[in-house]
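Following up on my earlier thread - several people asked me to post the actual chain instead of describing it. Fair enough. Here it is, all 472 residues.
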Amino acid sequence: MLRILLILSLASQPVLAADLPDLGEVSRQYFSDQEEQALGRAIMRDVYSDPRYLDDPEIESYLNQLGYKLVSVSSRNQREFIFFVVDDPTINAFALPGGNIGVHTGLLLTAQSESELASVVGHEIAHVTQDHIARMVASQSQSYWPTMAALALALLAARSNPNVAGAAIASTQAYSAQNQLNYSRDYEREADRLGFEMLTRAGFDPHSMSSFFSRMQRASRFYDSNAPAYLRSHPLTSERIADMEARSESAPYQQVQDSLDFQLVRARLRAREGSPEDAVLAARDTLQDKRYNSEAAARYGLVSALLRTRQFKEAEDEVQILLSGPDIRPMIQQLAAQTALAAGNATLALQRYQAGSQTHPDYRPLQYGYIAALLATERAGDALTRVNKQLERYPDDRRLWLLAAQTHAQLGHRLLSHRAQAEAAALSGNLIAAVEQINLGIKAGDGNFHEMSAAEARRREWQTLEKAQHKN
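Reply from S.P.:
Thanks for posting it. Predicted structure:
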């Protein structure tokens, strides 16, 4: 995606809200919903192929649950969102065209409460619902699609790694383009106000927004030119801090307890840090010294670290303690099944997956694990039944389509396997790969009349979409 920056050369002035007074009317004149969605899909194609994208269904599921809890109380909740995680220790979050919102692992670990995390996510949701990115793009490029794509991908690069993006922009001598990678003060104030409303309506601590940003402001004094990435793309002023504090002071005080899922996600991320041996040592010390807000989360982190070092017996002992607890969250049931499977006890793993799926039928990471375990134990017929049932409920789930591709491949269904890979590629924004895969499936020639007709129809649909995007 950084290659697009090499051709980016924009001369512009900072965008002010006064230039776009009608909350998106001007932006939609030059940058339609359809264009934004197409651009969003193209950007997510690069996100999914970027090594910094954290492909962790459990953490992503938690983030989407949190995000939609906030979206549900927004005054503009008609559009769809995708929340994803970037494996980066810096404190950052960013919004992209098409309702795509990224959160760095550094933010997940730095937030001192779930409400603080929610305050940042709510702020980013507001940037999307108020069409801030579309308005920035439209004010610069009108209907000129290549410039839109360049600017949007520059936004992605800058949010994910401001140092790299800054260097790429500087290499083209387009220094003024950096102004467009930062939100204007008016946009920031609007996102603060609407983010605060979402925060309070969703039942989070209304004081968390001012506390988080105040702490960021104090910390920034020690960074000089290397301020946290979030502050570089989101100008933070004393006026904004004062506005946040005034809103929080007028709100009634309420103590909001962090969810266990929030604690489990943080423990999961910590277990990934450093060497496997260091991760186990840190997790053991946390439990021994009782330096935790949740004992269950601390044990969860220890099991995750133990699996990295293949200490399966101790991991199973800790799992038994977790399963005897009062609140067995789906993440815990998933980890218990993974522990049994890693230790070679496929029967126990499948029992745990079945029990977890019955208790939490809507938790998709458990379904992914269950299907993968069935495939690992060469029970492709059972896997096919389960993956087809899940696809009936979630036809736009790219992970399910990838599992369907593996299932059909194990059963020798070449057309259906390539068709499933094509569906996953299309949902990842890669229409060229989708057409290539569906062509391979059609050439395999092992499908019946209905399957061949469906595949040819999908090929025509994707070819039309790809040509339309290329034309724009």
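The radius of gyration is 24 Å. That should answer part of your original question.
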